[in-house]
Design goal:
The structure holds three protein chains of three kinds. Chain A starts with 7 loop residues before the first helix and ends with a helix. Chain A is built from 15 helices and two strands. In chain A, 73% of the residues lie in helices and 1% in strands. Chain A has one domain: ABC transporter involved in vitamin B12 uptake, BtuC. In chain A, a hairpin with a 2-residue loop joins strand 1 and strand 2. By secondary structure, chain B is mostly helical. Chain B has eleven helices and four strands; from the N terminus they run H-H-H-H-E-E-E-H-H-H-H-E-H-H-H. Chain B has one domain: ABC transporter involved in vitamin B12 uptake, BtuC (Orthogonal Bundle). By secondary structure, chain C is an alpha/beta fold. Chain C folds into two domains: 191 residues, Rossmann fold; 129 residues, Rossmann fold (3-Layer(aba) Sandwich), CATH 3.40.50. Helix content of chain C is 45%, strand content 21%. Chain C has twelve helices and 15 strands. A seven-stranded mixed β-sheet of chain C has the order 7-6-8-9-10-14-15, with helices on both faces. In chain C, strands 2-1-3-4-5 form a five-stranded parallel β-sheet, with helices on both faces. In chain C, a hairpin with a 5-residue loop joins strand 12 and strand 13. In chain C, helix 2 packs across helix 11. The chains are: A mainly alpha, B mainly alpha, C alpha/beta. Chains in contact: A-B, A-C, B-C. Chains A and B meet through helix 5, helix 6, helix 12 and helix 14 of A and helix 3, helix 4, helix 9 and helix 11 of B.
Chain lengths: 321, 292, 374
């Protein structure tokens, strides 16, 4: 991995994957124009959404090692903030989307406090609880959120005078969001901040002793990660046009974390691959009906067994950690 | 009404306690949340149900057989799913995700075997209820409470007094050092999974009998609550798990009655978060020594 | 090396996914059925599957629709919006699908409605009760009794016939439960009753109702209106009995299922409920349906199976008129008058909501018994 400066073999395969991702980029740009059905565009859109969510969580859980099982809460807060602002106040998408991100980020910063005190699983469980609490508030605060009735008729986004209406337009919007998140997260992971985060992940005490301001860096990780989750949530709300609390459950959080773990903690390209894999698997198996989720569960277990270091993780780093 | 609500809360609290002990044991040794624990509880409830409704064997024997079967299921899960992940020295997160996958697998397996319909649980013990100071206490509640207390005391004795128990405590403290002492750590882990799963089966069966219903998704929320209880009480401390379960039970019942029924599941988590912020290792947990 | 292998594997899988599974049989009319086949709601999805497939079987045995066989294709939406929209996108892209029956929950219907509406494909739900659902577009239909009929009927019966004044409600906190609560409360107000407590629970999460029951008892309620599914209602009745409170129960049609009596036994004895379908109805259409269903699946159909069966029947009826053309099918469906189904005679009003009558049932000696027609 780049962070630790890989050996020759690693750089070779990273060049290969760079070419591969270049080709992938071209394919992605062409998707809505090659005559595929709206279903395929939809699958690409959804995959990109999960890639974005996975990348945002990777910053927090992969790089900084703060494993969160409550990411769906921030995604939900973003979705609700943006939907409510545009429905009630008629604000434009650019503004509501940003507000969604900021709102999620503000709440995300709250988690910094338990993160400073708690370690490992204890912290993870706090995030799980936090996620449930947020969902219950959304569900029960009916005056604001209409509770279980959900928010129908969320308007289509208008960006710089262009109305996002077609499947293709929605697809490009999420593509842009995903690329921005990827660029930011990958830049961070290669920067001093990234190294500080990895240091915190590997050993908080040592990092502290080396003069890393743990609280500050955790704030950065939490703030950014949840901000991005909020942005994706805002996108989701305007894409699906109807949201209710059932979208933001524990299952969603565990899926997002699965992407990060399956991709390899801290490995961004791995997260992308993992998202393609975990979104495609249940779709391909649709014909299996009742057996579908059974096999999905099994695949998740097997993946953890066969690729404990993640789809693209290198074997070598494993033994270190 | 307050007194009645407390009795109501104690009853569900007891069930959380029972389940929490299993979590506490596994977590104490492997330091990971076995998300499949709730599903094991479901499967346990269904195995008892199947054995009892087959009509060939009595309830007592069915219950015992079911405990053994569920215990073995726990061992099998460890052997074929968690052990391969553990043995590769994968990050703890892999075990976590693996157990979430296992939980999905088991829930759906239960659905395929026993059907998606909620199943009626036979009322094996026909017990009445007593009215005391305007509070209705069902005798079944008393039975659950006593049984749980008995199991926890028995388990505590087992761990404190026997050699296996000693090895378990040692493993929980330091796996590598225990290995060096010549203890077969994998065997210990399997024993822990056996006991934990058997207890989950007891909890599942009791809950099934109490509500007279079982469905493939019955284990999810109790599983989370039980883990909350285990953490609240302090991981690895069984009295802690017991008291943690009772606290969660009472707090959520009172919350449902006096605050808002919609927030009951949230209150349990809120209490957990607050307690952890004040005491990061739970109410009874020993302070973690930060390794330097 | 393994890395490259992984990349190849995953990309192959994605490609496979893209190709989809597009098999179109000749001389076959395909109807998609979207229902929860896995997950917490799968028990209701099963009724959807059985009901619609039974209708298809019967139609095909009778020679199909103008010679064409019909096929019910089942899609698992897990009762989740995202899954629902995935399926919807796939179905609208697939020109071979004539109509879509489905979605158990209104939430999923509301999420998929824009997709179906844009594509001009009929979506007809056998269960959705959200008032906004059919407002989403002209291709949205519903074939169940809406809560605005059930709620006031229940309130009137409770107050006028049973002479109860102090009424409590227990509702499930989802879109359906809230809708049912609101219409029922409106009815209670109209007929001069008093709501002394209104308590909710979260579906799939709550198994212990003792705190809210204790609260309702303290509020001196004489009767509880249950806007909850039969499984939850069974547990409510049983726990009420265990707590020793003497409060009557009155159920929404959602509690009409033998499972309720199995789960709660004596605790539901004497309970009244509204229903749109009754499996002991002596009319030949119901008797035939029960016999066929029992022969096929070995169990007595519940009301969701009956509604799904009728919904499939309505679509077949429309297909007979116009053939598998999406737009014409919509018009034909909207024009159906007095379709003689097992859930009563069905006509769609101008909002494409089915109009049906309701009946009152009572549980006597562990059986549902017909009480009166409203």
């Amino acid at each position: 991995m780049q962070v630790l400066g890989g050996n020759r073999k690693a750089s070779l395969s990273s060049r290969a994957s760079r070419i591969l991702f270049g080709i992938l980029g071209l394919v992605l740009l062409a998707v809505p124009y090659v005559g595929v059905s709206s279903y395929v565009v939809r699958m690409f859109t959804l995959t990109l959404m999960y890639i974005s969510l996975g990348l945002s969580l990777n910053l927090l859980s992969g790089l900084a090692g703060q494993v969160s099982l409550g990411h769906a809460a921030f995604y939900g807060i973003g979705a609700y903030t943006s939907a409510l602002l545009s429905l009630r106040l008629g604000l434009p998408f650019m503004l509501t989307c940003l507000a969604g991100g900021i709102m999620a980020s503000l709440l995300g910063l709250l988690l910094c406090f338990p993160a400073m005190k708690l370690q490992g699983t204890y912290f993870t469980f706090v995030t799980l609880g936090f996620g449930e609490i947020v969902r219950l508030i959304i569900l029960n605060w009916a005056k604001l959120t209409r509770g279980p009735m959900g928010l129908p008729g969320i308007p289509q986004p208008v960006i710089l005078g262009i109305r996002i209406a077609s499947d293709g337009a929605y697809y490009y919007l999420i593509l842009v969001i995903a690329v921005i998140i990827y660029a930011v997260v990958s830049n961070i992971s290669n920067s001093a901040t990234g190294r500080a985060l990895v240091a915190i992940r590997e050993d908080t005490l040592v990092a502290e002793a080396m003069g890393v301001n743990v609280f500050k860096y955790k704030m950065i990780a939490f703030g950014l990660s949840t901000f991005f989750a909020g942005i994706v949530g805002a996108y989701f709300a305007h894409y699906i046009s109807f949201i209710d609390p059932s979208n933001f459950t524990f299952d969603e959080s565990s899926l997002i974390l699965s992407l990060v773990v399956l991709g390899g903690m801290g490995n961004l390209k791995g997260t992308i691959l993992a998202a393609c894999f975990l979104i495609a698997v249940p779709e391909v198996m649709r014909g299996l009906l009742a057996y579908r989720m059974l096999i999905y569960g099994l695949i998740l277990v097997l993946a953890m067994m066969i690729r404990p270091q993640g789809l693209l993780g290198s074997q070598k780093r494993m033994q270190v950690s | 009404m307050l007194l009645q609500q407390i009795v109501n809360g104690l009853t569900i609290g007891t069930m959380y306690s029972l389940c929490a002990v299993g979590y506490s044991m596994v977590f104490g040794i492997l330091e990971f949340v076995n998300f499949a624990h709730g599903s094991i509880y479901t499967v346990g409830a269904f195995i008892t149900l199947t054995l009892v409704s087959s009509g060939r064997i009595g309830f007592g024997v069915s219950f015992l057989l079911s405990m053994i079967a569920t215990g073995l299921l726990g061992v099998a899960i460890d052997r074929f799913a968690y052990y391969p992940i553990r043995s590769k020295r994968a990050p703890k997160m892999n075990l976590l995700i693996g157990s979430i996958g296992m939980s999905i697998f088991l829930q759906n397996l239960a659905m395929l075997i026993w059907g998606s319909q909620t199943r009626n649980y036979p009322e094996v013990l026909r017990l009445g209820s007593t009215r005391l100071l305007g509070v209705t206490i069902s005798h079944y509640q008393v039975v659950i409470f006593l049984l749980t207390a008995f199991l926890i005391v028995a388990l505590q004795t087992f761990i404190k007094k026997t050699k296996t128990g000693k090895a378990m405590r040692a493993t929980a403290q330091n796996v590598d050092a225990t290995k060096l002492m010549g203890v077969n750590v994998n065997l210990i882990v399997q024993i822990v999974f056996f006991i934990g799963s058997a207890l989950a089966c007891v909890a599942g069966t009791l809950v099934g009998m109490y509500y007279q219903a079982a469905d493939p998704w019955m284990g999810f929320m109790p599983g989370l609550k039980a883990f909350t209880a285990a953490v609240l009480g302090g991981i690895g401390v069984f009295e802690g798990a017991m008291v943690g379960g009772l606290i969660i039970g009472i707090v959520e019942t009172l919350a449902a009655a006096y605050i808002h029924a919609g927030y009951r599941d949230g209150i349990a988590f809120a209490v957990l978060i607050i307690v952890l912020l004040v005491r990061p290792t739970g109410l009874w947990g020993k302070a973690l020594s930060r390794k330097v | 090396m393994t890395k490259r292998l992984m990349i190849t594997l995953v990309s192959t899988l994605v490609l496979l996914c893209l190709c989809g599974m597009c098999t179109i049989g000749a001389g076959e009319i395909r109807i998609a059925v979207c229902a929860p086949i896995t997950g917490n709601y799968s028990q209701y999805g099963l009724s959807f599957k059985n009901g619609t497939q039974l209708m298809a079987k019967l139609v095909n045995e009778a020679g199909g629709i103008n010679g064409a066989r019909i096929k019910m294709e089942i899609y698992d939406d897990k009762n989740e919006q995202k899954e629902g929209v995935n399926i919807a996108q796939r179905l609208v892209s697939d020109r071979g699908v004539a109509a879509v029956i489905g979605h158990f929950a209104s939430g999923v219907c509301l999420a998929t409605a824009p997709v179906f509406q844009r594509a001009g494909l009929v979506l007809i739900s056998p269960t959705s009760s959200h008032p906004d659902f059919t407002k989403q577009g002209t291709y949205m239909f519903r074939n169940n009794v809406k809560e605005d009929v059930e709620g006031p009927c229940s309130a009137e019966f409770m107050i006028k016939q049973l002479k109860k004044k102090n009424i409590a409600i227990i509702y499930v906190n989802n879109d359906w439960g809230v809708t049912a609560r609101d219409y029922f409360m409106e009815g209670v107000k109209k007929f001069g009753g008093k709501i002394v407590a209104s308590e909710m629970f979260i579906d799939g999460q709550t198994k212990d109702f003792s705190p809210i029951l204790t609260k309702i008892n303290a509020a001196k309620a004489e009767i509880i209106y249950l806007a909850a599914m039969y499984t939850d209602s069974g547990m409510i009745a049983q726990q009420l009995n265990r707590l020793g409170y003497k409060i009557d129960l009155f159920g929404n049609s959602s509690i009409y299922n033998d499972m309720l009596i199995q789960l709660a036994g004596k605790a539901v004895e004497g309970t009244y409920l509204v229903a749109s379908y009754f499996d002991e109805d002596p009319t030949p259409v119901v008797r035939n349906f029960i016999a066929n269903y029992k022969k096929e699946y070995g169990v007595v159909p519940d009301q969701y199976a009956a509604l799904a069966y009728d919904t499939a029947g309505l679509v077949v009826e429309a297909l007979k008129i116009c053939g598998p053309d999406r737009a014409k099918l919509r018009d034909a469906l909207a024009g159906i008058k007095d379709y003689p189904g097992v859930t009563g005679n069905t006509t769609f009003d101008e909002n494409r909501d089915a109009q049906k009558g309701v009946i009152i049932l009572q549980i006597q000696n562990g059986k549902f018994v017909f009480h009166s027609r409203v």
